[in-house]
């Protein structure tokens, strides 16, 4: 039997996970004397296994915000499931054997059929190619209040990425300068720029002219208002989903 559930954190904790003491089960928070499991790096399957083994214990966890919007699922009786599967396979083999035995006893009837030739189309394949152009995206990412680089102490290791870039680029923590090499379709009209580190993210869409080989984009940001958290931490609740109840409603 499969059990579905979702996760929630009603009262987020604002402690700094990076300042906690790592251990075998996650990190230890000295402020509340609890172990915090980092589920943000786990796959959906791994999260489901942890919840299945926890037996609804009080768990303090660190999650991706996106994980709060997902539905997880685990098998409550995996051994029974395997047994039932084996029984079903055995029954299928037995039934097939009986049918074959019965067919062998039936008189053979010959039926003449007409061969149906598959319809095929021959010709030159037309491929519509789209031209890709190279663009250099560069500029500065600055704090709107100070007009200087965003404080590395509060927001360390900031990177910037845009559609068409092979990889993200590091924003200079002292000057706020960045450079991105893009390869985009010549018909591209807009691109989205993403700024993030492990804990925060920001995105904004810009108009672009692919005939310009270099595009200057300077970003003035108020981090306290415009940076959104990638992670959420605190006492985690598990909400089980009753499929039968949902189907009746």
Main β-sheet, in a few words?
Answer: 7 strands, mixed
CATH superfamily of the largest domain: Immunoglobulins
Strand order in space, largest sheet: 2-3-4-5-16-1-6
Say what the CATH topology of the largest domain is: Immunoglobulin-like
Structural class: alpha+beta
Q: Mind explaining what this structure looks like?
A:
With 249 residues, the protein is of the alpha+beta class. The chain folds into two domains: 2-75 and 232-248, no CATH class; 132-228, Immunoglobulin-like. It contains four helices and 16 strands. It has helices at residues 44-54, 78-105, 223-226, 243-248; strands at 2-8, 21-23, 26-29, 34-38, 59-64, 72-75, 132-143, 159-162, 169-170, 177-185, 190-196, 200-207, 214-216, 219-221, 228-229, 231-241. The strands form three sheets. It has a seven-stranded mixed sheet, with helices on one face. It has a five-stranded antiparallel sheet with strand order 9-8-11-12-15, with no helix packed on it. The longest helix has 28 residues, at 78-105. It is flat, with a radius of gyration of 29 Å.
């Amino acid at each position: 039997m499969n059990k579905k559930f979702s996760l929630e954190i009603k009262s987020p904790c604002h402690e700094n996970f990076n300042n906690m003491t790592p251990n075998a089960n996650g990190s230890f928070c000295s402020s509340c004397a609890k172990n915090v499991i980092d589920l943000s790096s786990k796959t959906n399957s791994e999260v489901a296994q942890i919840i299945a083994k926890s037996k609804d214990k009080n768990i303090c966890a660190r999650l991706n915000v996106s994980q709060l919007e997902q539905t997880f699922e685990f098998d409550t009786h995996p051994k029974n499931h395997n047994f039932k599967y084996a029984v079903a396979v055995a029954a299928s083999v037995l039934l097939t054997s009986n049918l074959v035995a019965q067919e062998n006893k039936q008189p053979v009837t010959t039926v003449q059929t007409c061969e149906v030739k598959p319809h095929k189309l021959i010709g030159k394949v037309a491929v519509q190619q789209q031209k890709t152009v190279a663009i250099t995206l560069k500029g500065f990412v600055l704090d709107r209040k100070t007009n200087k680089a965003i404080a590395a102490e509060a927001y360390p290791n900031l990177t910037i990425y845009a559609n068409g870039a092979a990889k993200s680029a590091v924003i200079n923590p002292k000057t706020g300068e960045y450079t991105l090499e893009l390869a985009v379709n010549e018909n591209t009209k807009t691109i989205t720029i993403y700024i993030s580190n492990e804990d925060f993210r920001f995105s904004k869409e810009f108009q672009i002219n692919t005939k310009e080989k270099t595009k200057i984009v300077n970003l003035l940001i108020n981090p306290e208002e415009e940076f959104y958290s990638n992670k959420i931490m605190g006492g985690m609740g598990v909400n089980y989903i009753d499929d039968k109840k949902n189907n009746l409603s």
